[in-house]
């Protein structure tokens, strides 16, 4: 095989691969366009409708019957200078009657609209393609601003999620799509149940706040004085910010030293606490004796104070001598007074 022939075959293979790739990508692109543009195949018929107001409705918006998409809005314009003329298409297998009613609906709370067709009362014969539904058989979009504006005080008490839920329910009810006014009121009652449950709490808070404000008003001078003192305190702290900052920085060292101290004394402290139980038990068992000692302490301290009455020293004077003899066998003691003086400096105040 010659080099020229091999090169031609390679170029042909590359061209075939490129053609296949291009064809596949074109088919994928066409599919994406059909999906995102919601392209519909089949025969369609075009009709017209006259509205007093089609605010928010745009060319390309959906046309629905009983909630099912059956066509699209194609053109919107003015007729006679003050009414809106809408041209729309409907699938060929759907019949638009002479009495059909057309309404502009809210699709969601972001403002998207669609046109709904609904069978009306009266002539049920088919409307010829290109025919027009008069203004008497059309309804403009609900004035959402005017509707929701009346619920503004309620919305202030709800969180955003509850506002969206309630707004959607209101729009659906007044558009006649779903639910009843009773359902709407039930939803509103459910959303405001939290406030109702806290009615007593809110009332108490308001009453207490009124009392606080009354007290503050009655003590205006004291409140002014407190505010002035607080201002002076803050000014003083600001003027001594550096020493305070140093003290705070040294708290870490103090905490470390305290930790070391507690670690050192912890064993001894633990032992003292353990022995304290024994001491408390002994004191409790000899309660009469302890009570007698505690009762005598004031008078005994008063007697002891006489020892230093003549100066910053203790002087002693013999007021009595008592000899105590104890029998080793029985443990009994005998007291033998040898000398005793109860007058003069040896007398006690309570004698």
From TrEMBL:
The chain crosses the membrane at residues 15-36. Residues 125-321 form the Mammalian cell entry C-terminal domain. Residues 44-120 form the Mce/MlaD domain. GO terms for biological process: biological process involved in interaction with host. InterPro entries: Mce (IPR005693), Mce/MlaD (IPR003399), Mce_C (IPR024516), MlaD_Phospholipid_Transporter (IPR052336). GO terms for cellular component: extracellular region. This is Mammalian cell entry protein. Keywords: Membrane, Transmembrane, Transmembrane helix. The lineage of its organism: Bacteria, Bacillati, Actinomycetota, Actinomycetes, Mycobacteriales.
């Amino acid at each position: 095989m010659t080099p020229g022939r091999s090169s031609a075959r390679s170029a042909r293979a590359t061209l075939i691969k490129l053609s296949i790739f291009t064809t596949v990508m074109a088919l994928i692109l066409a599919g994406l366009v059909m999906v995102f543009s919601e392209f519909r195949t089949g025969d369609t018929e075009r009709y017209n409708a006259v509205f007093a107001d089609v605010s928010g409705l745009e060319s390309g918006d959906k046309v629905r019957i009983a909630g099912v998409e059956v066509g699209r809005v194609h053109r919107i314009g003015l007729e006679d200078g003050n009414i809106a003329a809408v041209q729309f298409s409907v699938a060929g297998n759907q019949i638009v009657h002479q009495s059909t009613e057309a309404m502009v609906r809210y699709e969601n709370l972001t403002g998207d609209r669609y046109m709904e067709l609904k069978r009306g009362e009266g002539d049920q014969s088919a409307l010829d393609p290109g025919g027009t539904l008069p203004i008497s058989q059309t309804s403009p979009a609900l004035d959402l601003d005017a509707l929701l504006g009346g619920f503004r005080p309620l919305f202030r008490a709800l969180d955003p999620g509850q506002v969206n839920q309630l707004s959607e329910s209101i729009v659906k009810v007044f558009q006649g799509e779903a639910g009843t006014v009773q359902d709407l009121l039930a939803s509103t009652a459910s959303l405001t149940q939290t406030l109702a449950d806290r009615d007593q709490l809110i009332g108490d808070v308001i009453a207490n706040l009124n009392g606080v404000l009354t007290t503050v008003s009655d003590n205006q001078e004291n409140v002014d004085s407190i505010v002035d003192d607080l201002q002076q305190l803050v000014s003083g702290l600001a003027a001594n910010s550096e020493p305070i900052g140093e003290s705070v920085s040294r708290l870490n060292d103090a905490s470390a030293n305290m930790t070391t101290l507690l670690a050192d004394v912890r064993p001894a402290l633990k032992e003292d606490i353990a022995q304290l139980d024994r001491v408390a038990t002994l004191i409790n068992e000899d309660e009469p004796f302890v009570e007698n000692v505690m009762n005598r302490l004031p008078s005994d301290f008063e007697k002891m104070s006489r020892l230093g009455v003549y100066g910053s020293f203790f002087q002693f004077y013999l007021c009595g001598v008592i000899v105590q003899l104890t029998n080793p066998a029985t443990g009994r003691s005998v007291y033998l007074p040898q000398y005793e003086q109860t007058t003069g400096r040896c007398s006690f105040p309570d004698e």
